[in-house]
Amino acid sequence: MSGLRFGPPGPNPLMICIDMQRLFLEPGPWHTPAGHDILPTCVALARARPEASLFTRFLPARSAETASGSWARYYRHWEAVTLERTGPETVDLVAPLLGLAAPERVFDKTTYDAFDAAPFARAIAAATPSALVFTGIETDVCVLASVLSAVDLGYRCLLVTDAVAGSDPQAHSACLAHVYPRFDQQVEMLTTAELMPHWAG
């Protein structure tokens, strides 16, 4: 079941656009080609309500040696995406979103979950949003981790199915078909067409 099953998103929804960065949308180890398919939708939503659009950026470790715990092993495996190898410019949002993302609405994180970054979590709590609208990449990693934290915190979550993407098409599809529907009382799955009359209006 999809759509706004629990009514309009309320007076002050926020869109959380997850990790639409050069790191993922340009050729490289973490290239997510499907991100280009959803970019126009993310831009349209942000342009419709720029003041209500927040953006996250995933910051890889500078090197495996600077990472802690299992992240050190992770970055030994993914050494090619460490900041020493890729350069800090790769964490920038992609150009079409840069002009829509005021600095105070861009939040950096070093883990999958946006809520693990204290400034982001505080900003969301202070805004007391009537709903959180999730877009971005990847459906089965950072978007999923952030949605599950939002669920635990009691936020109403709207997942825009044509505005999320992943590098693994099977994992993306499996999450939309089987994982997110498990949270049917807390996560509403809808399309941009279903959201936009309430979002832009």
TrEMBL record:
Keyword hit for Hydrolase: yes
Domain of life: Bacteria
MF annotations from Gene Ontology: hydrolase activity
Domain Isochorismatase-like: 14-184
InterPro entries associated with the record: Isochorismatase-like_dom, Isochorismatase-like_hydrls, Isochorismatase-like_sf
Protein name in the entry: Cysteine hydrolase
Record has Glycosyltransferase as a keyword: no
Cited SUPFAM superfamilies: Isochorismatase-like hydrolases
Keyword terms of this UniProt record: Hydrolase
One family name in Pfam for this protein: Isochorismatase
